[in-house]
Amino acid sequence: MGLPEPPALGSMALAAGAFDGQAVVVTGGGTGLGRAIAVEFARLGASVAILSRGEEHRAAGVTAIEAVGARALAVACDIRQPDQIAAAFDAVESELGLPTTLVNNAAGNFPVPAEDLSPNGWRTVVDIVLNGTFFCSREFGRRHIAAGAPGSILNIGASYAWTGGPGFAHSAAAKAGVKNMTETLAVEWAPYGVRVNGLVPGLFPHEDETADIRGVPGRGAEDEEASCPAMRTGRTRELGWAATFLASPFASFISGETLVVDGVNWQRRAMRQPAFVPIRDQMGKEPFQLD
């Protein structure tokens, strides 16, 4: 039977208008899980700023926000560049006011055996996931501390921050850094009223997954849902509901925590482990050879 399906799309976990008059910034909020999170804040009355490098992605986010009757703002920003982040926050504050919530969702990732991972590939993923999350958090935190205004930061993490992530050494290391940074900033900024929490999605299939991620063996297979203890994968709105709760006043005493929304998938263990298949073999790659 598994875990029951969530309430229907369009249902709200919080009271209508819970974010009226507030501005929310979502990095990478034009596609996939970022867009799903942005939409749930919009349903609750927030104005939402979509920060992204891609014009097409920004436009998709704006369309989704406006479709639920909320105000949207698209801002071009490469979160690897602190000066662009500062300019983006200036634009948001000018148009929507000081944002009350920042969702650090933008990320970069692709499956690769560690021996094949190039220095540039490593730097790019770490730069986006870890450095970008810090640069955005720092900009948000500094503005709130200076204004004497409370705020909430949500960092989108990954369960392999705890377990390691074979095939994703770059992303797993960066996400582990994000988890630690979440806990560190939560302590530093609690006296200023700024909460910092993490949110970890499990398997949430969506139409914006990259070809690399869709190409991971077993992704999208007919038995994918049966591979989870919940007997199903996540529905994107479930992640949005978790995000809005963590950013709401009902979570005002929660900071430095990481909430995993994955139907207990990452904690599953078998009584007898199956035979291990090396990551390189799982990806169908030829034996490694030095160039």
Keyword list:
291 residues, alpha/beta, Rossmann fold, seven-stranded parallel β-sheet, 9 helices, globular
In short:
With 291 residues, the protein is an alpha/beta fold. The protein has one domain (23-264): NAD(P)-binding Rossmann-like Domain (Rossmann fold, 3-Layer(aba) Sandwich).
Describe this structure in words.
The chain is an alpha/beta fold and 291 residues long. The chain has a single domain, classed as Rossmann fold. The protein is 39% helix and 13% strand. It has a seven-stranded parallel beta sheet with strand order 3-2-1-4-5-6-7, sandwiched between helices. Helix 2 links the parallel strand 2 and strand 3 (72-76). The longest helix is centred in the middle third of the chain and has 29 residues, at 119-147. It is globular. The mean pLDDT is 94.
Per-chain topology:
Layout: E1 23-27, H1 32-43, E2 47-52, H2 55-67, E3 72-76, H3 82-96, E4 101-104, H4 119-147, E5 151-156, H5 160-163, H6 169-189, E6 194-201, H7 211-214, H8 236-247, E7 258-261, H9 279-282
Parallel strand pairs: 1-2, 1-4, 2-3, 4-5, 5-6, 6-7
Helix pairs in contact: 1-2, 1-8, 3-4, 4-6
**Main beta sheet strand tally, sense and closure:** 7 strands, parallel
Provide the residue-averaged pLDDT.
94
What is the helical fraction, as a range of percent? 25-40%
Give the number of DSSP strands. Answer: 7
Helix count? 9
CATH topology: Rossmann fold
Q: What is the radius of gyration computed over CA atoms, rounded to a whole number of angstroms?
A: 19 Å
- Tell me the number of structural domains: 1
- The CATH superfamily name is NAD(P)-binding Rossmann-like Domain
Shape annotation: globular
Name the CATH architecture: 3-Layer(aba) Sandwich
Order of the strands making up the biggest sheet: 3-2-1-4-5-6-7
Q: What structural category characterises the helix and strand content?
A: alpha/beta
Rounded to the nearest angstrom, the distance between the terminal CA atoms is: 51 Å
**CATH C-level label:** Alpha Beta
